Amino acid sequence: MRNVDYHLHSYFSADSEENPRNQVLEAIKYGLEEICFTEHHEFHFPGLSFNLDVSAYFDEIQSLQKEFEGKIKIKKGLEIGLDSRFKEEIDLFVNEHDFDFVIGSIHEIDDIEVYEDTNYYKNKSKITAHREYFEHLLECIDTFKCFDSLGHLDYVARYGPYQDKLIDYDKFEGIIHQIIKKLVENGKGIEVNTRLFQFPKAQIFYQYLLTEYAMADGKIVTLGTDNHKADRTLDRIQEAQHLIQSAGFSEISTFSQRILDK
Ligand SMILES: [Zn+2]
Ligand SMILES: [Zn+2]
Question: What is the tens place of the pLDDT at every residue in 76-103?
């Protein structure tokens, strides 16, 4: 299986201060053969401006590609925040730039960030908070065709104020089935995001998602750490590869100019 990381950030994302060159050096040190930067861009994000300077970003990637040629493949990707209020702007932004790969993600709903200590979780039971996130995902997958792989389906499990923040998948089988079905119908991939992989329960959730996705005849599985810092000591890429393989997928998907690599 390919040793890749298709979800990482640098100082081109508003929530990272990492130099992209450090990300490359650390990826080489850990034996990765290919990485794809997936910098944030969001239209109207509460409290922070996730405005990607695409031309500076592309220049930087080009120079890194030149410097590290033969050592590691470096791709220029995007993590676009899906928000139906900005459908036209988002489609235009994604299509007018020459990205290799695009993750579609949800980080806010109606201007409320799905994050620690925000109103998103306020006065909500865990089951309601999780269900609303999935309902919103389903709507967005229906609305947007401009991305290649759906980012961190378990994002809502990261920041809740609950003792056990993780997703009890058996309570959401219906809606998750619909999400997976819609992704496959639309030819979209699913991301295995290793951010919560230190918790066995989070891995079990992905095992469930991958099995559902395989059963629905889905073909595109991407893998990413979502690292905002270069440090890879907590990487769980091998565990994710194992999970992907045991769900019946023989390879991890990679992209060039939005086309699936062979
Ligand atoms: Zn994200
Ligand atoms: Zn990310």
Answer: 999 999 999 999 999 999 999 999 999 9
Distance 217 CA to ligand 1 centre (A): 25
Distance 9 CA to ligand 2 centre (A): 7
Residues 173-189 have a mean pLDDT of 98
What the chain holds in terms of domains, given with CATH numbers, is: 4-260 (3.20.20.140)
Nearest ligand, CA 15: 2
Give residue 140 CA to ligand 1 midpoint distance, Å: 15
Query: What's the 52 CA to ligand 2 centre distance in angstroms?
Result: 13
Q: What is the 3-state secondary structure (H, E, C) of the chain?
A: CCCEEEEECCCCCCCCCCCHHHHHHHHHHCCCCEEEEEEEECCCCCCCCCCCCHHHHHHHHHHHHHHCCCCCEEEEEEEEECCHHHHHHHHHHHHHCCCCEEEEECCEECCEECCCCCCCCCCCCHHHHHHHHHHHHHHHHHHCCCCCEECCCCHHHCCCCCCCCCCCHHHCHHHHHHHHHHHHHCCCEEEEEHHHCCCHHHHHHHHHHHHHHHHCCCCCEEEECCECCCCCCCCCHHHHHHHHHHCCCCCCCCEECCEECC
Ligand in closest contact with the CA of 9: 2
- For ligand 1, the distance from its centroid to the CA atom of residue 219, given in whole angstroms, is 22
